[in-house]
Structures
1.
Amino acid sequence: MADKKGFSLAGMEGPVCQPDDDRYGFRAVAEGLARSICALDENISTVIGIEGKWGSGKSSLLNLLTAQLRPRVSPQTQIVTFSPWLNSPDESPVSAFLMNIAARLARLDTSAQAQAGRLSSLVSDLGNYARQTSRGLSPLARLGSKFFPWMEMVADGMEAVAATDLSQREKTVSELRTAIEQQIAALDVSFIVLIDDLDRLEPAQAVEILRMVRSVADFSCFRYVMCYDRDVLAHAVERGLGVQDGRLYLQKIIPLSFGLPRPESFDLRREFREGALAIWREVNEGEPDEDVLQTLAHYSGCYGEALSTPREVNQALNAVRFRYPGLRDYVYFPDLCLIQLLMTVNPALSIWVEHYLTEWSVVESRDGHMQDDEKAAITVDLTEALNKFGAIRARSVWEIRSWLPGIDGYDEQSVSLFNTVSGSDLEEASAQRRLSSMVYWRYYFSFSAPQNVMSDAEIQNLLALAGSDYDALERKLMGSVTANGVSSRTWFEHILTRLTPVITENAGRCAQKNLLKFLFRRSDLIIPFYRQRDMLFRLEDLGINALASQLIKQLKQRQPKIAMSYISQLFREAEAFAWATIYLSRLGTWAESKSIDLDRGEVDDLRLMMGVRLADDSIRLQQASIPYLSSFIIAWREIASKHVVMSWIEGGQLDDRAYLQMLLNFRTGVNSSSQGSYLHLDLEFIQKVMDLDRMKERLADIKARDEHTLRGMIAEVEKAIELSTE
């Protein structure tokens, strides 16, 4: 297992520099490779290729190889590390390399010329050779009486070069090469040249390096070790030379090649998991709990199987290291690691996940819906993204459904998206700040929450009002009913979804009582707003009933008798009497009452309190104006009796205007493929609550009186009756 120092490097992109930092077994490879290189005849020019994908660890291996070579070679062997990638693109790599060699030879030269401080013939020949053999992107300046200013940058300690007689006849390239060979042999020196990042060069520069090692600088005492991605370099050769098969060309140039072994998959998965845990410990200054450990291990084992190089491990960990400190309080650490891992090994799936969650949050919040063709298209995109994994477990739909919401099915044929998620699952996801949370999902792709979601701080401020200042709470909530924020939902709808059982349970008894009090006071003012906005509106969709049941259950858990006294008072004094009546009728079902721990006797007591409230004369005068009158009448009949309801409708207590308004409020929404959405008067329902013939007679009497101010209402009622027969 790697030590703490090793894991501290997990977030760095650079290659391994010290043997102790090696976590993938490259040290053993470097040892074997060093022995093989040292066994080669140093008098024969050799080119060795180390092949591997980008990020596979070639630079790390080269660093470790250098460390292994130094104690093994003789003092006369020069180890030269040459990185043409770092040279200016306008500078010939051949010139840069040969002048590097010239600088080293100048230090080794003990000739009389060198002792006198003048440029030796060997260095002069190398300079002229470099000028004549470079297919100069930038011509090599003639050697002058003093050093080139840039020569200090490529030389390895050369300090001064004397003037030379430039009037002498320039030697041919062949003559220069022969002279250089002889002079190097006389110095009894050899070179091992390590060339890295060959696959990063422009095609012209890459070809220039290959020409150098097999032609220009193919001196007998030179051994070259070059690192490259074979596919990338072959493509550069094809572009640079116009050949059809760059691989065959490389075989001629590089007779000895060594394929860098790919790290074992379990090594890469282990390094990602342990590196991630090191980040967690560093940020949190402690140990993760068992849930974090198990989930991270699962993600690393499943999706980490797609890791192919150490660089990919580093890239994923870099992303986690960069994001996690600022997001610690808003994300679930294993989910954050998962997303960064996907961004590295399967960007297409990562993009798909963000797209899906964007659409899912809109559907789940009822800000919009997905058409069938849209669902089909996004399902196809999911299949294509998963297929990029190949034949590994991460390709499974079963795996992705375990951490993304609204997905059903077990394979490509049965997968189904945008399915309804249970309230308990959503609540748990938000409590843990999971990727599947409506509140927190966007943090995983940015440093901010979804714009149509209230922050935790805002919700806590609301609960603080609920616990201390009812009037301020009521103003806040009523103001949120018509405030849309940045979506089609109002903030009130959003608040209802955020007031989960965990949130209200932790808010305290006073906050629970005041929130429940608000529902009994103001629901009859809130519901008409949503019904007017959408004629197909259903009370169940708003979530008021669910919140009321949740609060009643929580109040009863601690002090049942005191809680029931308070709840009875709310029903007896309910200003929102219409909603309270409908809600109470649903509490009468065994399943609903049991779910909030109400027994039959307690429900009967509440029905008695509600009956007292509905018998109030002031309430009777308001009933005709209830917008959702059909639902209220059904509930009222259950609490009182059919006779009481019939007496109110036909007992002459309603004047003509109130009677017409009552009929209009009996209308219900219908959605038709031919006519769209409209309101009709369901005569079958009317017949259940009143005498239909008497209703038609009274409507005819009102119309016969032809009161000008009632003509519009009469026309609407007649239209609603007409629509009911279609």
2.
Amino acid sequence: MFEHSVKVPRHYKVAANIFKKVSTEGGSVKTLLYDNKLKHFRTNVLYALITETIKHAADIDKIFENCSILEKETRLDPWLAKVLTAELLFGKKSLPGKSKPEQTILSYKDQFQTYTTDHQDDLKTEAIRRPRYVRINTNLLTTSDAIRAFQDEGYRFIRCTSGSYDDYLQQIQGLTEEDFTQDFHVKTVFVFAPGTKLHEHELYLENKIILQDKATAMAVHLLAAPSGSVVFDMCAAPGMKTTQLAAYMRNEGKIYASERNEKRYQTLCDFVERTGSTCVETMHKDSLEIKRGDMDDVEYILLDPSCSGSGMELCVHNYIEATRLAKLTSLQEKFLKHAMNSFPKAKRIVYSTCSLFPEENERVITNVVKTSRAKWRVQDVNELLKGKWNNFGSAMYGSMGTRCLYARPESDLTTGFFLAVLDRDEKDLEKSLRNANKDGVEDVPKGINEEDSVISEDKFKKRRNNEKQSSKFDNTKDIDGECNVINNIYDVEDGSNLPYVDDAAKKRKKNKQEQNELNENNSEEIFVKNKKKKNKDKDKSDKIKGTSSELATGDEETQRKKKKRKKYIEDKVEIDEQSDLTELVKKKKKKHDNENVVSNDDFEIKNVSAKKKKKKKNKELECE
């Protein structure tokens, strides 16, 4: 009889839950283990149990199919059953509890063992044995001192081969437990034999060595940001590549490290502080919220966005749904577009994922580069590495795909990884810098005319004030979460938390159209005012002409004054038509001109009246 009141040991249930999430959602085991709810568990025990289950997942599926255990035991949780089976066959070889699920699995033990004995050649009982990669934190320790420290402990340093990349791969496959060597590409990375235990090593506890896979270190190596430059790590947590960047730049320059998730941001701050990465400025915000003008000094960008994690050893990626993958690629394209268009001084971008799916890699690169308003070119990684690499992107995506790099576990002896290097066209970079220096003018988004790109004065002043204000952020154990997987980053299941960057472009376009209409209205009003002014002056001239012709007496003095007045009015009209003085000056001139017109009219009328009186008097005298 099964004792129904006995509960399954809790660590088995937790391991089954994480295994289910990794299998169905494409997450990372180590990322899920960051959960604060698990702080009371021995995470190393959970990690080992889940590792064994994932490693032998395919074998367990075959065993279950042969025994039909899931069909017979319909109430048995399949995820928990796989964890218990892994513990029974490949782990501790026993189940300590007396719960019903454990007793059920034990009842099939003989069938399990019989099948494994008969099908040893068919079962994949061994995973690919990758070397142990160790990065020397040169902020706290030099590579030469690290070599001496390991030699003092009895390790034997073997110089890296000067031959081909294939020679190097053979060399590291032949490393014994006492050997270590320097990596072929990244000289601050040391290579030890598979299974080398360094979690309790003194240098590790002092953060002088970092357990980081060689594939992820290649991103910083190919970014090649020189000392003193400004770099932006757009998805920085947990901080592996961020701190590697700081060491590569010798802590000279500035590194912006952004992370939106609160827990991962705290992990990033803590890791940056412990590794002595003093040039890093952490930011608790979404990189997609950083607008053009906020960080215009950025020259190099490292982008490792959320991905399926299909290249990680501890990730079962056969269950990723097409709709979920499509949402991930959409998010990745938004990040890359933002990186390419929002930083006017950016000259190089390294885009990387720990995924082996082309949809997240070559297709993202080709889609964004072809549609970007800024001109970027995908560099040939094989040329950058001088032909010393073997795996590249698919030709199905054209020449852009073949210029990208893949690191594959079976041939490169690393985690699965994708990497692309994008360099900005020099002429486009110069144009972007000129546009950034123009007051009140933004780069014109695609589909908007350049004449519509003038921004409002208030918006311009606000931007300048934002640039003058510098934001201050607080810089607050084996962080092997080397890539940003989808868990705890963005909720891409329903797309509810996906940033929508098109709203800003629409608002910017609307403001520009309103400003353009305002400018057109102002121009029309000025034109109408000038035309009315001209007509008014012309009417005055005609009026004076009529008055002068009616009152003309043939007197030479009157004719002289009449010509003088006519010339004055004509000059006045000509001046008004060509004048570009301010409204204040025009008003003053208008007032002055009106006063002159009135005074001259009175003068002429008085003279004419006097002449009439004199002529009338003369006629009266003649009559008498």
3.
Amino acid sequence: MERRHAMVKRKEFILGAAVGLTFAAAATAGGVIQWPGAQAEAVQSGRLIPSSGVAGAAFAPPQGAPRSFADIFDQVAPAVVQIDVRTRIPTPRGGGMFTIPGTPFQFPVPPGAAPGGQGEGEEDEGIVSQGSGSGFFISADGFIVTNNHVIENAQEITIRLSDERELTARLVGRDADTDLAVLKVDGGPFPFVQFEENATPRVGDWVLAVGNPFGLGGTATAGIVSSTGRNLPLQESTFTDFLQIDAAINRGNSGGPTFDIYGRVVGVNTAIFTPTGGSVGVGFAIPAATARAITDRLMRGQQIERGYLGVEIANLLPDLREALGLPADFRGAYINDVTPDTPASRAGLRAGDIVTSVNGRRLDGSTAVTRAVAATQPGETLELEILREGRPQTLTVRVGRRPENLGRELQDTPPAEAPAEAPVTGELIEGLRVTPVTAALRQRFDIPADVSGLVITEVTPRSAAARASLQPGHVIRQVNQRPVASPADFRTAIAAARGADRSVALLLVRTPERNAPVVLELAEAE
């Protein structure tokens, strides 16, 4: 797979901006949705009634389903809407560059092109952008589900129905972490659909995606479920196991529904993986099970609160297990760092700890731990089993409230400037010249006051340390989960690893950005 040429597009809605000219750009949909049920219950005003499934086979096709999806489309299409938004993008005074939200594209703004861009003391009103996405009614009284990125920062939201009526919508609530939003229009009753919550789609099941690609509206594409439980390299993927589908998802499909062959909503179209910018048959939808819990709470006017510990964690990869002498089937999440004055620090968690279970439930990686914590309400307690320096321990943590936009603040961190040259000091160990942190070194390398350990002042070229990307200014905080404060500590830890017949050691290293585990290949003993 040529990852250099392919990318996951986070916004699937059409977006344009006017600066004398009209620019159009595209972005993908990203978000999380759960599955409010769509069973054939008592008839409600305006509700679209899906076909009945076969008892004992939730996704067995009804007679003739593979031959045509026309009946299903006719049944559910009236509930799908086009969402048009107007957003004002701030622009630099006197010209410059502006970025269309949700895209990587920048466009030049000539002086005076943006209203308010001239005149001292005038407020910069920015550029008016227009975007278009998809959504669908989930109640007869006008509640609509879409992606958060479709309506984020929108000043005006207009809904276009399948009968070409246009209604003004208001934002009821949104959740950036799952990229879900709920809108409301007045009037009704409106035709609506519901999320499926009792049946889980299988790989190979038919699906139908309906939405507003390229602003065309009322478009259906069909395919199958290609995979389930997909994690994507998106911020919005933290709390979502996406459905992968091969029904075509294109620009403007953001927020549209994914139906099964009974007309039940099993997902929300949200992202594509593409080397070209268009659909190549690898699309992703937020599962209905995720969406229902979020949209139900948003409809009730509730904020989405998630549990928070204050740790930075990573998967316990095979090379980390090898360095620590753990079995190949050992599972857990490695704690890179603990934020001061957080629930984790108050409970005694430390960088280098390995979380193996939450409330007695074994978890196999960092994503599972993050979701288990996030599913806990702030103020509740969790019992964590950890492995520290080879010994199991149990800690009780009172969960806090997860801050908004957690993790996004690192996306725009500027690169650190190279420190000024200074005399190289310290002892040479495994291709690294190291020395305890001093006030001078702390200032030279901009090392935070709460970081202690051994500063790397030189890296031997073409050594294992150089291949591990270690650099001067990095601080070695631990070796094989044990804190090091002197070169003697470092040598002792390396000798212990060799004594245990290990060829690598696990270093916990402070870089200019954050803590990171580094597996160091040990030189052969002389």
